[in-house]
Amino acid sequence: MTIKIILADDHQIVRQGLRTLLTAEPDMKIVGEADNGRTALRLVQEHTPEVVIMDVSMPDLNGIEATRQILADYPGVKVIALSMHSDSLFVLNMLKSGASGYLLKDCALEELVKAIRTVVCKKTYLSPGVSDILIKDFASTWSDNNSSAFSILTTREREVLQLMAEGKSTNVIADQLCVSVKTVEAHRKQVMNKLGIHSVAELTKYAIRQGLTSLEN
Amino acid sequence: MTIKIILADDHQIVRQGLRTLLTAEPDMKIVGEADNGRTALRLVQEHTPEVVIMDVSMPDLNGIEATRQILADYPGVKVIALSMHSDSLFVLNMLKSGASGYLLKDCALEELVKAIRTVVCKKTYLSPGVSDILIKDFASTWSDNNSSAFSILTTREREVLQLMAEGKSTNVIADQLCVSVKTVEAHRKQVMNKLGIHSVAELTKYAIRQGLTSLEN
DNA sequence: GCGAAAATCAGGAAAATCCCTAATGCCTAA
DNA sequence: TTAGGCATTAGGGATTTTCCTGATTTTCGC
Question: Strand A28-34 relative to strand A51-55: parallel, antiparallel, unpaired?
């Protein structure tokens, strides 16, 4: 049986590399490619793949949020996170969102094949080094700190927050989400109230700390 | 001869610890304490100390900027940077600003005494580990990348940018700098033009990358 | 000193934000 | 099954901020 795979990464070169590698495997087939989370979401609905290779930080809709939404609708899909940073916040948020694996981008390409085979067998796969991060972090701050963005904010609110933190104006956000400016304003207001933060600058910092957006881009 | 010292750190506990340690040295005297860069600046004018112990990230006016301004007026003053993070951006910007030493906060307190004695003898002192960072970084990205905030923006513009990135409104910034709102607006506009960035969110990210503000606070 | 750059400020138009209100749909507990 | 809570959507009008243009004073290097 063929394993259907979707690639989601905003760097074309990365996608090319992965595609080349994976097409060499006779029992794997890439059925779709996305350069942002929103497209990935749509492709999953279209193709119901077994596995999604998901970059953590992507513009528009990030990998963490995309993973949450995919798994809410398709709990059987296996998501493997792929990231440059071994930043613990990203790793933890990604795994909290339900990812089955976490790979660092500097790992050997062959590792990805191994990871895919592992997760389709209902197991999980972590890059060497990632598990260390987990242990260190669980031991310290994160054990019961459950006030992350993912428990206080609604899905829509997180979306709006991310877009704000990416520097988009209310107008642009409204367009992108296909709702009125007023709605976006309402969400932003709600986010600010919930977090007790009333400036875009501090909202941006919060979003970065929570892994909703990154310092780059 | 007594070495006059000024402490600038926004954490009271840190200042207390340092004070306790340094008062044990018969030839050293703390002549002033500040919890932000602006106060530090004023204290230097008042006391013309030999040494300033300067935290890198402080609210209102950060340690990097404060160091620049102090050394512009008092080139003989020795500034020793003190920081939690061994983040290379902070280290490099601090040293570019003219600091004579860089200590990590997790070093032994006795190291500070050693550092002070070293810098007053016209030499420099780096925490073990900091020099590694320098070498690694100079080798890679930083060799000629001179488009940092410190070469494009004026002093005033950096001040305004930092305050913006701390979430302060134009109004508050104007108050704090004792100028009119219109002036702050003009500076912000200028900053945005120079950087080609036109949203507070992205300005904030830029400021973080440049070490003008930190993710906390 | 002199010129360029920096820092300061004003007025009015345009845009974004804030505050209040409210309809709709969905889920849950009584 | 119905009432209530929450998420999402949205409008109107007041308020605030931003944007654009232009101008004066201050500073600083040569």
Answer: unpaired
